[in-house]
Design a protein that fits this description.
Number of strands: 10
Mean pLDDT: 91
Strand order of the largest sheet: 4-5-7-6
Shape: globular
Strand content: 15-25%
Structural class: alpha/beta
Number of helices: 6
Distance between the termini: 38 Å
Radius of gyration: 22 Å
Helix content: 25-40%
Largest sheet: 4 strands, mixed
Order of helices and strands: EEEHHEEEEHEEEHHH
Length: about 220
């Protein structure tokens, strides 16, 4: 059986076939060990429409392209410049969109450590501010490195925010925070929840659209 170059079939000790389309458009099919080439072809043929729709969805996503010396912060590109003048701090100029520091912020681990710090400094007071303003109290707040979520709210009203959202515009950050605060009242994504979210964050659809389009760049 000949498969397209971006298709992979993996036999496993499972009962049912499982199909996954990745962001790069590649297709990964997991099938039971007993599956024949004919059965694999049948699954791919039956799921051809679904595969194509997923691939189109990922193709519509846009990547925010950064130059070699750029960082993404609050939805803007900031040019990084090394400066021995600033030994223990990072100087962010929002007018010129530049960042100066002695530490190498182009080194990914160093950059992520700094961005996590910035996220904590910005997000924590903003969560408290919006919580008080919207009368949506919560219990505890965590800044985390979730892989697939921008935020989360537990049944105990503990809120988690993904630090990577600090790279998004401020209205998108507010949306993620308000979304989780609304879950302190309504846990499920019902019509009632959407009405509550819209009342507190009228721009939520624009924020969702931004994340759908650029979220994979964060």
């Amino acid at each position: 059986m000949t498969l397209p170059a971006n298709y992979t079939v993996e036999h496993r000790n499972v009962k049912h076939a499982r199909l996954r389309v990745n962001e790069d458009g590649s297709v990964h099919l997991f099938v039971p060990n007993s599956f024949t080439d004919e059965e694999v072809s049948k699954v791919l043929e039956m799921k051809a429409g679904w595969i194509a729709s997923k691939q189109r969805f990922f193709q519509q996503k846009s990547k925010i392209l950064l130059k070699r010396n750029e960082l993404l912060l609050f939805g803007n590109r900031y040019a990084y410049y090394y400066s021995s003048q600033y030994k223990n701090k990072v100087v962010v100029n929002n007018e010129s969109k530049t960042i100066q520091a002695k530490r190498n912020l182009l080194d990914i681990p160093t950059q992520e450590k700094w961005l996590k710090y910035v996220a904590g400094v910005y997000i924590r007071p903003r969560v408290h501010e919006l919580s008080e303003k919207l009368l949506l109290p919560f219990n505890r707040l965590f800044i985390r490195s979730q892989k697939k979520k921008w935020g989360n709210c537990s049944a105990d009203k503990n809120i988690s925010i993904n630090w990577r959202i600090i790279k998004a515009p401020e209205f998108v950050i507010d949306y993620v925070i308000i979304h989780e605060l609304c879950h302190t009242l309504i846990m499920k994504h019902t019509v009632k929840f959407e009405t509550l979210l819209n009342s507190h964050c009228p721009e939520y659809k624009q924020a969702q659209a931004w994340l759908d389009k650029y979220g994979n760049s964060l």
